[in-house]
């Protein structure tokens, strides 16, 4: 329906418009190229569809300001890190206070004592540990699971992403005799073969799950309860319950990585919808943008971890880094969990998500687009394909990178910021109805032009 020729024509017009409207960003991009590799301090910043990244001047609530004096409605929100709004007041106050009291002592603090109870109350698991990133939390959890089960394999789902974690970069690839596991082709410097110790199956495939788990050699299943990194793939009815049951029957540890799905509802997806995992990882937004993450676990897992710890020689565990759980991270989480990530915040976010879903579904219906919307909680995604995907392979096939990049740039040029990689939109407690309505309006304009 939307031709490649039209996509290319609109995309080049939008690139030209971007260049005109963001002169200071372009100039700073040129200056930065002198010393930063490829012109940015972190190469992911090149993933935006614009010719150079916008240079941020600041952000507040759900607004992002650029050095060119532009203000954008921010639906990317740091790809979930700022999902509860940029610099919420309780976080800003806690950080300012902590800044004058030392930031990293390698000692526990009083706030930390309180925070343990707050995490347990919010997420329903009794025991917790802190890391500096969600990637690191997932690496720690994988180590613990292998350590306490004595099994060397983990199971993941095709199309998953759990951070910079070697063990999870395995995909399923079509092969003349069916599907085969393969290491992700884009990895840099990967020298270890992870295929013998990582099993990969499609999400929502109960037969494959049963086959893998009943062998009895899987230490843990590491999963997002809803896949959010390959578009968005919902769990089929009963699938997560089957996953829970099969893990329990085979003494496999069920780990939910709720780094993104904390957007599903208060306490994350597993508390909003069930079932309960044995271990849970939450990163990014738990510190409101301060680098920190946590993993929680049941009493039974804690006992097995303690037993393992007591049985090993003293020395490096391979888990944790020097800055983990420092005073700054603890203060940030204390403010976020105590005052920002509230039931009231979710009520606002979920209502706005419904408004956005309705708006985009209205566009799809009005233009008879072969698209659909996926939504769980405060996370909304439009997909340029007719049918919702049930697994990673289908979700990859449903992507339309050229069209999506052109739409993103069209929106950015009109003051609306979507996450790169996919069409994900997050609603924060600070997002206003007017921002949602503006997004729907501009997206409708974009679709109208692309269809002309
Ligand atoms: N888990 C999930 C589900 C994620 O989406 C991500 C990052 N997108 C991570 C873990 C890793 O987070 P970080 O990059 O902050 O380590």
From TrEMBL:
This is Aspartate aminotransferase family protein. Keywords: Aminotransferase, Pyridoxal phosphate, Transferase. It holds the Pfam family Aminotran_3. It comes from Sphingorhabdus pulchriflava. The lineage of its organism: Bacteria, Pseudomonadati, Pseudomonadota, Alphaproteobacteria, Sphingomonadales. GO terms for molecular function: pyridoxal phosphate binding; transaminase activity. Its cofactor is pyridoxal 5'-phosphate. InterPro entries: Aminotrans_3, PyrdxlP-dep_Trfase, PyrdxlP-dep_Trfase_major, PyrdxlP-dep_Trfase_small. Belongs to the class-III pyridoxal-phosphate-dependent aminotransferase family. NCBIfam families: PRK07046.1. It comes from the Bacteria. The keyword Nucleus does not apply.
């Amino acid at each position: 329906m939307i031709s490649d020729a039209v996509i290319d024509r609109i995309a080049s017009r939008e690139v030209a418009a971007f260049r005109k409207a963001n002169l200071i960003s372009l100039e700073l991009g040129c200056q930065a190229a002198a010393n930063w590799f490829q012109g940015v301090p972190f190469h992911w910043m090149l993933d935006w569809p614009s010719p150079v990244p916008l240079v941020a001047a600041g952000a507040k609530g759900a607004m992002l300001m650029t050095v060119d004096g532009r203000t954008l409605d921010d639906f990317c929100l740091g790809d979930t890190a700022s999902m509860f709004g940029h610099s919420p007041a309780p976080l800003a106050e806690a950080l300012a206070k902590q800044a004058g009291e030392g930031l990293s002592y390698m000692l526990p603090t009083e706030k930390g004592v309180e925070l343990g109870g707050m995490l347990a109350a919010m997420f329903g698991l009794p025991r917790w540990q802190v890391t500096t990133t969600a990637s690191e939390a997932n690496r720690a959890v994988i180590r613990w699971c292998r350590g306490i089960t004595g099994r060397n394999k983990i199971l993941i789902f095709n199309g998953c992403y759990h951070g910079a974690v070697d063990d999870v970069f395995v995909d399923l690839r079509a092969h003349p005799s069916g599907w085969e596991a393969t290491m992700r082709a884009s990895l840099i410097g990967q020298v270890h073969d992870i295929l013998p110790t990582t099993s990969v199956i499609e999400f929502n495939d109960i037969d494959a799950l049963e086959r893998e788990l009943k062998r009895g050699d899987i230490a843990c299943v590491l999963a997002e309860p809803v896949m959010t990194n390959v578009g968005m793939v919902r769990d089929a009815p009963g699938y997560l319950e089957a996953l829970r049951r099969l893990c329990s029957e085979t003494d496999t540890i069920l780990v939910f990585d709720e780094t993104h799905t904390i957007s599903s509802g208060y306490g994350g997806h597993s508390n909003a919808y069930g079932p309960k995992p044995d271990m849970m990882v939450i990163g990014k937004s738990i510190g409101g943008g301060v680098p920190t993450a946590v993993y929680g676990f049941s009493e039974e897992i804690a006992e097995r971890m303690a037993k393992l710890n007591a049985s090993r020689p003293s020395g490096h565990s391979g888990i944790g880094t020097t800055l983990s759980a420092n005073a700054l991270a603890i203060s940030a989480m204390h403010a976020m969990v105590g005052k920002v990530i509230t039931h009231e915040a979710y009520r606002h976010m979920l209502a706005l998500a419904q408004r956005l879903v309705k708006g985009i579904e209205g566009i799809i219906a009005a233009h008879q687009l072969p698209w659909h919307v996926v939504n769980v909680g405060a996370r909304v995604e439009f997909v340029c394909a007719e049918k919702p995907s049930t697994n990673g392979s289908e979700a990859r096939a449903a992507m339309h990178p050229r069209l999506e990049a052109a739409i993103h740039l069209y929106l950015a040029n009109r003051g609306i910021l979507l996450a790169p990689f996919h069409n994900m939109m997050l609603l924060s407690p600070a997002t206003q109805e007017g921002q949602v309505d503006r997004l729907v309006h501009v997206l409708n304009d974009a679709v109208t032009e692309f269809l002309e």
